Amino acid sequence: MPTFPSTVTPKSISPFNYKFVKLLYEFDKGYKSTRSQYSKPLRNFSWEFLGLTATEKIELTNFIQLVRGETSTFDINWPFGHTVIGATNATPIVVTVQYYHNFLNGDSVTISGVEGNTNANGTFVLSNVTLNTFTLVGSAGNGTFADVNNDAVAKLKLTNVKFVFNEGLSGEITKILGPDSNNSGIYHFLLSFEQIY
Fold first, then answer.
1. Which of 60, 162, 168, 183 is the most buried (most CB within 10 A)?
2. Cβ count near 154 (within 10 Å)
3. Cα(46)–Cα(192) distance, integer angstroms
4. Please, what are the averages of pLDDT over each run of 10 residues along the chain (197 residues)?
5. Considering the entire predicted model, what is its pTM?
6. Does some domain include residue 7?
7. Domain membership of residue 135 as a residue range
8. Three-state SS for 64?
């Protein structure tokens, strides 16, 4: 599955907006009903890119065209992370981050920079998520947590992500804000995304 290019970093990211899409089905006589137990939860978010060079703009638009041409979904390795301040020496490992993280049960997170309890490094599915802790499914601690270099971080990895396109615009991305008014070759983009999780 394609992965959103990590070399093009957004300047700002919106909070997640969560919603539930209820699937409708028809009975033999044409009646319709809603089955909430089969609902697919979605989360939407947007990224704003400011001051992209022409090269970065080409990389971004090439990726959009690739996704449109070959598959409708892709992965995103979140560009910013949460500082890890603890990882239990237990089975499974429970990780604590400095602030509220917005992760959900079933999300995938990549952790790096943990010293001592190095088995906390890697990509894991999460369970038992609280405001600032989560359990790494399938993990087993191998030492006492340390972060001597102050670079232990947890980054979200999203799968099954789609672009949200403007209706009736033949698949144009939500909004292109550039080039800027003096045509200096600096481009600004606003992209909207949707993920089924």
1. 60
2. 27
3. 4
4. 88 81 49 45 84 84 78 86 95 94 88 96 93 94 92 92 63 49 65 81
5. 0.76
6. no
7. 82-158
8. helix
